[in-house]
Design a protein that fits this description.
The protein contains 10 helices and 12 strands. The protein has 296 residues and is of the alpha/beta class. It has one domain: 3-Layer(aba) Sandwich (Rossmann fold). The strands form 3 sheets. An 8-stranded mixed β-sheet has the order 4-3-2-7-10-11-1-12, with helices on both faces. A two-stranded antiparallel sheet has the order 5-6. The chain has a two-stranded antiparallel sheet with strand order 8-9. Strand 5 and strand 6 form a beta hairpin.
């Protein structure tokens, strides 16, 4: 049976991040977007500029983000830029808030709930994309890795509202006032958005790296997250977004660290693995069967 390759290193350093990208064997060409989360506050567990800087610079990349759909520091453009400045991201690379100057719809073929996704107009400027994700828990999605970073992460504020409501609204205020979409519908809508983005960019123009450190039950969108209860795992990378998230999920489950219990509860109580299931079985975005290739 065919398996995807997931590269792995226990070492979490700027140098190992560059090495694991090189192990993928895919040169991201043209104007390269590096999609990260800039974090809701200085307390959030976002990937620090000192860690990611050498890789972003190697790619001559632009760090890209979009505004949020909830009333935090990053929903307002001015405040979002202030947060980016304070975190030091502009010191390592150019930064683009892709929905600062508008947004546009991209089609979603055979979506579960969405027929279009809404992304920032800046997305049109890039030829290839590195999805550079902090793997951790998430209060709504169970966990956040590559698939969440492609979908919610790249969606504009209106696009995020559309995903969270499973297509019922693009209004960020109405989104939270509505009765919440059923959990699986929300997760499936995230994968619909993934499908749209990957088709728009081209699977051959994308690569995925998950850094599994600071493994809090809370996402980087939480400005005051719980402290991690388990230790760091390492860095996972693949050309397959399904496999890289599945590998991280499995690594948490199979860890000997007893502190994993809180993160497992967060992932499974939200049925987080359904995102991976849908990405594989409905949209055929990748494989759940994988082999780990250690670069240590």
């Amino acid at each position: 049976m065919e398996k995807a390759k997931v590269y792995f290193t226990k070492e979490i350093t700027p140098e190992s991040l560059v090495r694991i990208y090189e192990a993928l064997g895919r040169e991201l060409k043209g104007r390269v977007a590096v999609k990260i989360s800039t974090g809701e506050s200085g307390k959030s567990n976002y990937l620090r500029p000192a860690l990611i800087g050498p890789l972003v610079q190697k790619l001559d990349g632009t760090i890209v983000e979009c505004c949020t759909a909830y009333g935090g520091h990053r929903q307002n453009i001015r405040k979002h830029w202030k947060e980016i400045d304070e975190r030091g991201f502009k010191e390592i690379a150019p930064v683009d808030i892709m929905d600062e100057f508008g947004e546009f719809e991209i089609p979603v073929e055979n979506g579960c709930h969405l027929d279009t996704d809404i992304v920032g107009s800046g997305m049109k400027s890039y030829d290839s994309v590195l999805i550079l994700s902090h793997f951790k828990g998430h209060v709504m999605g169970g966990f956040g890795g590559a698939l969440k970073n492609i979908s919610i992460g790249i969606a504009s504020s209106a696009g995020k509202a559309k995903i969270h409501s499973a297509g019922k609204t693009t209004d960020t205020k109405l989104c939270w006032a509505l009765k919440r979409a059923k959990q699986d519908e929300f997760l499936e809508s995230m994968v619909d958005a993934c499908k749209g983005v990957i088709d728009f960019v081209g699977a051959e123009n994308m690569a995925y790296i998950n850094v599994a450190n600071r493994l809090s039950v809370d996402c980087d969108c939480d400005g005051n997250p719980h402290e991690p209860e388990m230790g760091d795992l390492g860095i996972f990378a693949s050309l397959d977004p399904v496999a890289v998230d599945q590998a991280c999920y499995d690594a948490v489950k199979n860890a000997e660290d007893p502190g994993k219990a809180a993160l497992i509860e967060r992932m499974d109580s939200r049925h987080g693995i359904h995102t991976v299931e849908t990405a594989c079985e409905r949209h055929h975005l990748g494989l759940r069967d994988y082999e780990i290739v250690s670069i240590d």
